[in-house]
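Q: Start with the shorter request: fold the first protein.
A: Done. Sequence, then structure:
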Amino acid sequence: MRNVSSMIRRIKLLSSLFEEIQEAETPLPPSSTLCFTELLSVITRGKVLIQEIKDASTLWGLIQLEFISNQFYVLVKEMGRALDILPLRLLNITADIREQVDLLHKQAKRAELTIDPRELQRREMLLEVMANNMMQNKKNKGYMDFGKMEELLSSIGLRTISDYDIEISKLEIEAQNQAGTGGLVVVSNINNLISLVSYSKSMIFRDGENEESKKESCSYLYNKVNDSSSSSQSMSIPDEFRCPISLDLMRDPVIVSSGHTYDRNSIAQWINSGHHTCPKSGQRLIHTALIPNYALKSLVQQWCYDNNVPLNEPNSSVSEEKSNKKNSNDAGADAVKMTAEFLVGKLATGSADTQRQAAYELRLLAKTGMDNRRIIAEVGAIPFLVTLLGSHDPRIQEHAVTAMFNLSIYDNNKVLLMSAGAVDKIVQVLEQGRTMEARENAAATIFSLSMLDDCKVQIGARPRAVPALVLLLKEGTPIGKRDAATALFNLAVYNPNKSIIVSSGAVDVLIELLMDDKASITDDALSVLALLLGCSQGLKEIRNSRELVPLLIDLLRFGSVKGKENSITLLLGLCKEETEVVARRLLANPRSVPSLQSLAAHGSLRARRKADALLRLLNRCCSQPHHSL
């Protein structure tokens, strides 16, 4: 909560600056536009993060304390870097606002990771209770101190039966969300929490609701009566109809590749600003197609009709905007070109400090829209950025490789980057980058380049490229591991690359990641393993793993839809080579057949088909008398 309050305070300080600039109505220097574009990204992500914390399970947030605090820390540091390029002296603002923004800038630069000691203490208490609960479940030992548990849950806002029910619902949703990323350990921990809260609820409230709960029920009924009389004056939009970005009614809901739904205008602005991740989950978008969510749109339309809410927002200035759009676009393109030429000149002739600043500004400029990426490449930035990849300055290298990643999102630039000899330099950064962020963005660049078939061939032919990706799988942060896994997946689509990936030790690392609750790439790891099954070396390595089959059986129960499909693919592929050996290991596990039967009945079409095939295969093995099974 301290991080949330601090972020809100910083944004309020910035809004004072924005209001003054709006009132001044004077032209802005180009570097301030870059700064405000980056601040827009930071504030949007901060808004999404705060909303996620509000909507998510409080107990799971306590478990994820360091991870959530670090997300705020990263946003504050990015805010500080954006303010580095804000020319305060050139802005028409009062001295008071200038001093406030300058102070905010200094504080952001000095900011450190903040974790509230009281929250740490609550988390330690929760972990202790969870450990006792697990011991009690496994060995019928241990004692749960309900007084301590009630005190803990009350301290985080769970005081009534309704609070407990809402928390259990949020934990169940979190278990579903984590099925494809967090792995079995995370899902197991969440299930432990659900068990703990449910048990505590039954014990704490076994004598009936306490007075506070009764008061809440009475208050709820009273409010319902009042709401029915004043609904025409104040309309509350259901949460499921609100866009996660704007928090307004989704009049045109669309689904992105991560599976989340947003209002078309909000997500289109997010993508056109150069972002390549889902705002809600942080997952990289494998494509930017916006698929209409007709089912939700129908529900929204019905709700609007029932509540007399206009479906289309009135916009009196549409025709005027259309008439001015072409002139505005032309002027914007000219401004971008002038800025890009100026920055490329700094890259070519400037000092190290000048190059660092110019590389950062190009990185931001390339982040915001396809036209910007095209123009930056046209003015000749790519060769200079390739040269800067070998810089001894960690920040110059990081900004250069990130700028190249942003440029590579535009397909024509992929060809230009390959022609400029960027791959060898990018692989060098991936292998020996001076910061982890530089290495991870190098992996993301390889992922982006490998979208083209020719690039898959050329990158796979580099002897150090695949081993460097596998190394990042071991050493990277969760984001870096995901970038490396998705890059390996793209490369493995080209069959000759599969044996290279296997010989680089990827199989063992990927199987270890399935057991790593902090890696958060379960689905990505399974996807790569399923592809590697298609080559003889990959099949041999996967078959030699003793841990994989039990993991896959558990993933059939707890995995995401995609995870279940890939798990059944791997099991079926293993059975085709060594049917009796794998069948024995499957039948020895009492959870395998029920999991397969459940999947055959309720899974996706692909999963049902493969589960049926595997069940038939196991049935044949059992029915043949000469088999030891």
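Q: Next, the second protein, separately.
A: Sequence, then structure:
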Amino acid sequence: MKYRTRLLHPVQPSEICPILTLNSTKDLSDDLLDYLMMFNSDAMTLYGRADGQSLHSGDNIYKQYVSSHPNFTADGFFMDAGFSCGDMFKMCSFGGRRFDCCKYATPIFSDLGKCFTLNVQSSDKPWMKMQTEPGIAAGLQIILDSHLEEQFDSETDGVTPVFSSAFENGFRYYVHSSEEIPFLASEGIAVSPDSVVYSALSSSKYILLSSSSWGNCSDSWPPGYDQNFPYTSAMCSTICKAQHFQKLCGCSPSIYNHLNRFNDCTPYETYRCMDTKMKKVVNQTTLNIEMPTCEECRVECKSQVYHSFNSYGKGLSRGALMWLSKQGDWRIQHMKSNFQVVNVFFRDMSYTEYIQKRGMSLTELLSDIGGNMGMFMGMSVFTIIELSLFLSKIGWIAFSRKRRDYMYSKKKNEEMHEKELEDVVTGFKLFRTRKSGNDMSHLREKIKGLSMHRVTSEQLNVCKLAWENEPDIERRLAIVTRQNSALKEHKDHKESTILPFDLKDIKEQISRGRAASMFRTRRSRSETAPSAIHDA
């Protein structure tokens, strides 16, 4: 709990601003006062609601008054004519203990005029520096006086209420960190007289990624925004608009010129500049005012935000009025019409931290890419290296003429080498074919493997004379066929010799023109066969 309470310290600053409670002076006319109230109007609101002719008339009155009062400024007028701290703050307490409000209140000028910053952290009392437990009893309570009796009323004094502040009576307050500059016109919490507001706070801390870490936030001012206070996107946008008006108009509206670096534009100068230099025609019919987008003003990387959950109560109780009447010289009727009570406290002693992280780190990205490539494409690191080398060589060939000539000559040499190898192989096959055709040893081996039949010596001699003396090849083949059939009938003869005849083989040899040489070879061998058998 110690680190949480320490981070909750910045909760205490609060902005308190009066609305329609401006003191009048005798030397100011109603028209000039009405014109001065427009100084703090937003530029777009001023252009959309104000009348150019009335602004021009009020501007002339303002310039005449300034000529007679050289030291007069609109900002100084609001600061001098606004409420003092003692007029606004009637009673303050923290954790049930009373303290002097004005001792810790600092007047500042904001977009709603004169305001006060209440910072109890600057106190030297430890019990005022932090809230130690949740709940309304341990928080901050402020009792304010709106002094509606000093408000301009058109029914009694003839002064027309100004459009920019005629919507409500009372105050606006805003809880923020000490480094932040608030904009109460859009961010404040309103409280009206004869009411009580309870603001239960919940703290959130945001830590975002910068542009160097794949994020879109910034902790430093953009180029050209040399400031000596912490960066916030809201303040950056305000300065951006002030610079835009300074560039086009030569001055800046007071609502944007927080640092007083430029001359303040009067309401009429703002209206005139926007009408002549910032107006743009859209679709030939619609008029649009081009305001700067301020894209360079990114959201801050680290911020502390206090979310307020508000509840309201109407009217102060009689017991409260009686007790307050004893604390000061205040009439009950005045308190009913002007007093309001603001209670600011933490609903719980904790905070929520939002940290923006990368959806995928560089290591996870590479792993994801590698896994998908390996699963769906069958690729690996070596494949990527090979592909890179291949692409680099393709690029080398595309951009280097010398490399292209080298690759062309290399391809031609490889084609010639392949052609020479094919010629050598073809010649070798042809040589082997011719050699096997003239060699009769291959044929002899085939004849030895033919089927064997047994015949007698006399039959063999008759067979030899029958087909050897026949000059016609066809008739010789027919004789051999008949003799071969006759010899099959004597398979069981004891005195026989083996003579192979295969008609299919003989037909093939005859068709090739080599039958004669085959029969001569067989005849020389068969003539010796009978003598060998008779000797046996």
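Q: Describe the second briefly.
A: The two ends are 129 Å apart (CA to CA). Residues 1-25, 162-166, 491-501, 513-536 have pLDDT under 50 and may be disordered.
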